[in-house]
Amino acid sequence: MNLKSKCDNTRKEGPIRCIFFCEFHHTAGPMISCQVPENYISKELFDSISVYIITKAELQRSVITVTLHDYKILGFPVKIDDRDKYVRNAFHFNLCFVCDSNARTVQYETVVMKFSNYLIAREGECSFLSDGKVNEKLSPILTQVMDELNNKGECALIEGATTTHLKVCTIRLDPTPVMDHQVPIFIRELPEQQWDLTTQQVTPFIDGFNHVSKIAVLSDVENNLVKACVQNLVYYGVVALIPLFQYGNVYCTTPKLKMMMQDNDMQKKCLNYVAKNPRHLPVIRDVFRIYSAMTRGTTIRDLCIRFNPSNLRINERKLVQFGVLEGIIRRVQKYPVILSDNADLHKSLSGVSSLDELCCSIGVPSQQLEDQLERDNNVMLLWK
Amino acid sequence: MEVSPLSIILVKSDSKGDRLLFRYPFQTRCNDEPSSKGRKNPYTLPVVDDLLQSPKQSFSNINKENLTGLTDEVLSSLFAVKTELCNRKFELKVNDVRFVSHPTLLQLRNKQEKEDDSGMLVNIVFALQALASHSVVNWKILVKCYHDLSKRMGIVLKYEEKRCGYVSEQTQLMTTAHDDGYTNGSNSAFQIILEKCSLANNIKKMYDDLCTTGLVNLRINRWIPLTFCLPQKVHQWHIRGKIVEPEDIDRCLSALRPYHSLLLLHPLHQKNDFTSLDGSPGLDRMLNQYSPLKNLQTLAADSDLTLTHVFELTAHLVYWAKATVIFPICSTNKYVISPNAPIHLNSPLLEKFSDTFPGSNLIRTVGEFSLPSSLSQKCNPLCHPSQQSELVKTIIWLLQHHLLLQLHTYIQYMPTDNGPLYSKRGNNKSCLASPSSRSSAVVNSFQSISAERTESESGASTVSEVTEISVNKNIVLENVGFGTTEEDKQDYQEELLLDFPDEERSSIFKIPATNTPEDLKLFARLCRKGYFQGNHHVEEIMYLENLRRSQLMQLLDKFRDVLITYETEDPAIAMFSCSS
């Protein structure tokens, strides 16, 4: 399953269509000496772009990508200086990956660099590239690399006792910083592997209800370490961050709510998720009614009084969790802003931090703080 | 800012070889950072790197937003492309810099060079940051935009060369400056070029415009105007921190309906800033009739333009960040604070607001929208009319700054515990095919949607069958209209909901309002047309079915057992104020 999803992922990023090896021949100039599959890049095309492949000295060891109308060629030009060995005192070569012109190729950059370094090493050891028989020697390697990178996303080149591993790493967006008041929740099973000690200690307390500070206390791990660990899990898409659940929270519906009635799979998933007892599933009408009733100004407590969800076989905490994860509801946060000239409070009550953040940082129950702020005429609570 | 160019480079290539004529910026900025050498602790041990490793190569050509590590000769050899690559998009990425251009071949006007008619290659290259790994910008579209600009510039130059030999003159000037200034270093040569050559000045202005506003407005050779808008940048001034991609705008515009309304982001008296002298007269006419209280259809009628033309003009204004699309302001609109509203004590908006509305405070004003509130709720009958107009002005200001979000009511049909049964639903929506609505464009778009759905939900029913049934139904409905006698009642009820599954029918008949034929008829009609699936808000249904709000609200109330309502934003026009 895991392998398959990874495979799909690499395919979406655009497979490698061709790998070729070209060199600067001492009499013939730039030429392709080995190509898999044969003749994918024609000689005429190569000639028109050879200046970007066998480059000037200043562009050596830069990752260069040329986007043409049909192809995208990714290379790493290399020059090996050796006065005794080579006719022209240096050996220029470049190993290039060819992809479709609209594909993303950033993820191959490090692979091309590593592969080129591997070839440099072999050239240094035994003149692997420059002895004139490079086509026969290289073409099975190129075929292997292309097949395995496209299918598995990784490849191992074994030569005697040494092994060189090539791996395509998906480049993801940087995860946003984790805050004290956020709640991590697993959206995927934690992959079976040797996790670091912090992660091993932290993960048992990630249940979708404990917030980061609480996890730090429960697991006896320093707060910043917990944040780093959660951030790492977020990066790998194992964990999502949701707002803290409280009965005083307010949620509102988003335009995605209609998907719940239009997407049967989502509906089934929802009923199973929010059920109090998996053997007695709630009905969609009740679930939808509660979601619809979530508006600004209605707390979860109000909804519980109005609908009595446990009578309807619904677990309200799970209901909110599912809604937030699927994006059919959104938490409405309260942002206190002070209007008087009290310099001490200007920093904390400036409207940047939400009530949750404030409660978490000063360690006061949110109800208490909210009551206090509401009594103060100089403080405005903005809901957004 | 990652959408701004790092540098603009002008390269030519002709029979005399290739040369980098000009690049801007050429002087490296910001050297105020204290150099690390001056601060070096004399007691530190020199760190001896692993000597076996080759010295670490830096893989970046960007230093403090400047292009580094590539000499002019290298750049010129890279961009003097072979003829095979001319007159098409050129894209090259070196480490973390992406170069985009449209190499243009032009025929020189100068008669002396008749012996070689190969012409000259002119290439205006934009160097962009290529941090694609962790960027929010869709670089493919960004590249497309820059390519377009380079292409347009190429066309202008080609034309100007043909008209008056502008390019040969300018390149001659630049080459001379380079040859003369060779002893003083290239930067001084660039300085001289910038003083002497109008083309270099244009490039400088283009760079400055792209980096500040994203709106390029040039007059090449004091003759041809070149205007360009970089959508990723131009929307920054009204929505800071959010990058608006052209496809977001497309999505918004494809959802444009006749009942939407245009909201200019600038005061109307500044309109001369963005309607040039030779601009569309239609635009001028439309702006003369403009009011945020009018919907596009009224606007079209008042300015005597076709609706499609008004749509196009709206699209134009939205793309150029001159306007946004809202639902026309009326007393029943409900507003709340937009989730991304940048309201805090240090926000510059606070001051701007009190400048526009003396004596009021932005935070207090916005705070009143913490709970959904409408104009009619805010104005009691005792209110003075001037107060109301002041309130409308405030709301317009808040909408212009994307601080408010409008909530619409959507309706979901929920006849049974398990939701609607989809057994025969395919034919319900086909009634749309009957030409009942006013705006054909809207109907067409809905039709296509419903056609898709018919296929997806009931794979068995074909389109031809569907229309047949719908025709029959129309006849049935007409007959029903005449039947009023008491004993017929049960029959027409049954007939009206003939295509509804039995379970749904039985739950609908539990509602007392079904005894009123008008109510039931309206309900059945709206339900068949698929308005109760969360795709249409109340205002849209009112518009399409020509209903009054009270009629629809009464119906929703009477049938509340099978209709669930909820409030949320209109996803089409909320894109400017929502993150999703």
Automatic annotation (TrEMBL), chain A:
This is Nitrogen permease regulator 2-like protein. Belongs to the NPR2 family. GO terms for cellular component: GATOR1 complex; vacuolar membrane. PANTHER family: GATOR COMPLEX PROTEIN NPRL2 (PTHR12991:SF10), NITROGEN PERMEASE REGULATOR 2/TUMOR SUPPRESSOR CANDIDATE 4 (PTHR12991). It comes from the Eukaryota. GO terms for biological process: cellular response to amino acid starvation; negative regulation of TORC1 signaling; positive regulation of autophagy. GO terms for molecular function: GTPase activator activity. InterPro entries: NPR2-like.
Automatic annotation (TrEMBL), chain B:
InterPro entries: HTH_NPRL3, Npr3. Pfam families: HTH_NPRL3, NPR3. It is found in: Lysosome. It comes from the Eukaryota. Coiled coil: none annotated. Its main location: other. One of its GO terms (cellular component) is lysosome. Belongs to the NPR3 family. As a component of the GATOR1 complex functions as an inhibitor of the amino acid-sensing branch of the TORC1 pathway. This is GATOR complex protein NPRL3. The lineage of its organism: Eukaryota, Metazoa, Ecdysozoa, Arthropoda, Hexapoda.
